[in-house]
């Protein structure tokens, strides 16, 4: 009997648990990146592709290149007007790369601005939020992967999604799976207790399931692939969630209906809106995402067409396409970060499905998809470090055979998001070196062999430099301005942000604080890139999602180096030239204020103050959607629940013991590997006098090993209380 699928206590008086449905296996082959994919006769051009997609892409690239060429020409006049120098060439190359980065974003946002006003962004798939809710015919699995997360919080969100889907009247088309990769034994048992409570609350044992892996191979990608290979054959689609994901039932049904209506579509990605932010940092993130996000998302959807990207969650995926094309290989390089398991698997999964000629779409016009932001810069830096390593790995994936050039652009963009920080820092350092050269290197006023009447004055043109700076700022800030204009055509958004004037004030505040944080983020990302290139792994840790006070001493410990670097750079700039110092003031100010800035932005008090005066607010706060109301109710029910010791949790509930036993793998057989933690734990169980002593003497690893054995659990339960 497969104990993962069907469990039954040997004692018929104990409850019987079916924790998983019968397996419906489907083949999911590992993809060979050096071989041609099997496209199964599908056409090269998806039927859902926009007819004018070539013109859209030409517009984005021509505008980006033209703006960059003009700005680079002007920058060349600033530094090299009287002849090219080595440092002048270096700073010109760096400037060209950095400017193309922001020009590309501007061109994409410009297309998104037009598309946003025309109310596109999903209509090509037949998704119109104003139409009556369509009826579903096929089955979808809602997947909630979790890894050492607070189970009460995670399942409260999943319960809100469950209730919202049931409210559509089409709940029979959905099964819900909690896919645990948890390694913390206390969290593991608490997950089972929360799962048991979830079923009891809904009275639904036929559509809610729980599976914990005992070998966490390939992290989240392996977690999902394991489910697909075991159960994917019984479903047409899967809805991939994250631990903080929320989606309206109406939204989920519409996307699933679009998948049914468009058989060549492999994935539909929604635009998750950041919500529930309480710290100032989280509120800045959610305001920016809510106001600027649609313009940016409409833009990339506009020119990506049917070759869009996947962000790993809040998306509906056709299981046939995923199983057929998205089996993740290990990269062959032996040196980290480029070898081994693909960490940022979502980009690659979308690219491989597109390589197999499945269409990948984003639908920014459809609302009802939500996520949360890390509460502080420190928390986002931890997550960013992992993403940085994953994105740098894509260097090894870009040469994949038959990969769409748009998919390659996606990966280059992901790499660029982290490479731009070291380049920005390098440009600042080279700028100081240029000024040093002007200060200490004796200039040659009369060059060449011919006698000339007028000297050649080597200089940096300050007036032209000012114009280049203004142009750069205009291109950098234009997407925000376009988003503000688009707000005038969206009364709901404008009203929800406090009106046009309050919204503009919030944009100024977000831009100011974001500008001060940018140099800090530059150093954080530069450090991450360098450490990864030196071979340091980012690890795999659970993300902190709940708000917590960060003591000032911890902020000082983590950010004193940023302040020290700012002081050092400021002293060097001042010694070289006061004008250079004032030119670098925006960067220096952010670094000098790193400690108070991080501490203030991680505070709930300052976040609450902004909300009180009507700044950085979003429509989801002024008129809370149904799914967010449901989520708030569910989280209030569990707000006082904490993760307890695993054994103390088990002994309180015989139903939980039976459930836990039913989920365990078979006992170790002779000849199989020996777990030394299990052996030591069993010795301790033999020597203790009662359960309390056992819980006190067991280490984390011993507890985890004993909880994986029926014999050990029975031995513990037979100890005196």
Automatic annotation (TrEMBL):
Residues 239-465 form the Glycosyltransferase 2-like domain. It is a multi-pass membrane protein. GO terms for molecular function: glycosyltransferase activity. Keywords: Cell inner membrane, Cell membrane, Glycosyltransferase, Membrane, Transferase, Transmembrane, Transmembrane helix. It is found in: Cell inner membrane. The keyword Signal does not apply. Pathway: Glycan metabolism; osmoregulated periplasmic glucan (OPG) biosynthesis. It holds the Pfam family Glyco_trans_2_3. The chain crosses the membrane at residues 54-73, 85-107, 411-436, 467-490, 511-536, 580-602. Coiled coil: none annotated. Belongs to the glycosyltransferase 2 family. OpgH subfamily. PANTHER family: CELLULOSE SYNTHASE CATALYTIC SUBUNIT A [UDP-FORMING] (PTHR43867), GLUCANS BIOSYNTHESIS GLUCOSYLTRANSFERASE H (PTHR43867:SF5). This is Glucans biosynthesis glucosyltransferase H. It comes from Commensalibacter nepenthis.
């Amino acid at each position: 009997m497969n104990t993962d699928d069907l469990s039954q206590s040997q004692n018929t008086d104990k409850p019987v648990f079916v924790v998983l449905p019968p397996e419906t296996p489907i083949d999911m082959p590992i993809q060979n990146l050096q071989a041609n994919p099997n496209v199964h006769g599908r056409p090269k051009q998806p039927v859902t592709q926009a007819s004018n997609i070539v013109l859209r892409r030409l517009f984005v690239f021509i505008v980006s290149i033209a703006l960059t060429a003009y700005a680079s020409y002007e920058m060349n006049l600033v530094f090299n007007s009287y002849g090219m120098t080595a440092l002048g060439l270096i700073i010109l190359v760096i400037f060209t790369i950095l400017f193309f980065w922001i020009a590309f974003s501007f061109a994409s946002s410009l297309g998104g601005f037009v598309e946003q006003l025309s109310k596109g962004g999903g209509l090509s798939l037949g998704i119109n939020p104003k139409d009556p809710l369509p009826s579903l015919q096929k089955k979808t699995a809602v997947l909630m992967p979790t890894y050492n997360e607070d189970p009460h919080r995670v399942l409260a969100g999943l319960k809100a999604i469950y209730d919202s889907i049931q409210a559509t009247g089409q709940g029979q088309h959905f099964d819900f799976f909690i896919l645990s990769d948890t390694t913390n034994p206390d969290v593991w048992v608490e997950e089972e207790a929360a799962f048991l409570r979830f079923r009891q609350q809904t009275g639904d044992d036929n559509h809610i399931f729980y599976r914990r892996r005992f070998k966490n191979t390939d992290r989240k990608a392996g977690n999902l692939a394991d489910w697909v290979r075991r159960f994917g054959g019984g479903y047409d689609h899967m809805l991939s969630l994250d631990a903080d994901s929320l989606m309206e039932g109406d939204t989920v049904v519409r996307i699933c209906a679009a998948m049914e209506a468009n058989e060549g579509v492999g994935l539909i990605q929604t635009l998750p809106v950041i919500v529930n932010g309480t710290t100032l940092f989280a509120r800045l993130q959610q305001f920016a995402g809510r106001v600027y996000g649609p313009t940016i998302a409409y833009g990339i959807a506009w020119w990506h067409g049917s070759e869009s990207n996947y962000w790993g969650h809040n998306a509906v995926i056709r299981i046939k396409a995923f199983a057929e094309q998205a089996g993740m290989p290990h990269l062959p390089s032996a040196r980290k970060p480029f070898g081994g398991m693909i960490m940022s698997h979502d980009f690659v999964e979308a690219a491989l499905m597109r390589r197999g000629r499945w269409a990948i779409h984003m639908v920014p016009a459809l609302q009802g998809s939500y996520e949360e932001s890390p509460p502080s810069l420190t928390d986002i830096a931890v997550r960013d470090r992992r993403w940085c390593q994953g994105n740098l790995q894509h260097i090894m994936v870009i040469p994949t055979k038959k990969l769409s050039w748009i998919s390659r652009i996606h990966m280059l963009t992901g790499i660029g998001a982290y490479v731009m920080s070291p380049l920005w820092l390098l440009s600042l350092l080279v700028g100081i070196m240029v000024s040093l050269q002007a200060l200490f290197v004796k200039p040659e006023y009369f060059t060449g062999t011919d006698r000339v009447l007028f000297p050649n004055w080597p200089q940096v043109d300050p007036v032209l430099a000012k114009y280049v700076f203004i142009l750069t700022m205009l291109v950098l800030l234009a997407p925000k301005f376009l988003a503000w204009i688009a707000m005038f055509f969206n009364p709901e958004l404008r009203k929800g942000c406090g009106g046009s004037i309050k919204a503009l004030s919030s944009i100024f505040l977000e831009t100011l604080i974001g500008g001060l944080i940018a140099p800090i983020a530059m150093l954080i990302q530069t450090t991450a890139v360098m450490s990864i290139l030196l071979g340091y792994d980012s690890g795999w840790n659970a993300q902190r999602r709940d708000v917590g006070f960060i003591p000032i001493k911890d902020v000082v410990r983590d950010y004193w180096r940023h302040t020290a670097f700012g002081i050092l750079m400021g002293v060097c700039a001042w010694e070289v030239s006061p004008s250079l110092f004032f030119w670098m003031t925006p960067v220096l100010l952010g670094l000098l204020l790193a400690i108070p800035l991080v501490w203030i932005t991680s505070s709930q008090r300052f976040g609450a103050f902004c909300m009180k005066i009507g700044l950085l607010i979003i429509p989801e706060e002024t008129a809370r959607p149904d799914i967010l109301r449901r989520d708030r109710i569910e989280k209030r029910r569990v707000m006082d629940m904490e993760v307890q010791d695993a054994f103390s949790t088990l002994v309180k509930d015989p139903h939980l013991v039976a459930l836990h036993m039913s989920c365990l793998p078979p006992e170790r057989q002779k000849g199989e590997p020996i777990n030394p933690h299990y052996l030591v734990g069993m010795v301790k169980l033999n020597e203790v006098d009662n359960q309390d002593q056992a819980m006190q003497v067991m280490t984390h690893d011993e507890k985890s090993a004993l909880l994986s054995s029926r014999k050990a659990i029975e031995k513990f339960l037979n100890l005196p209380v």
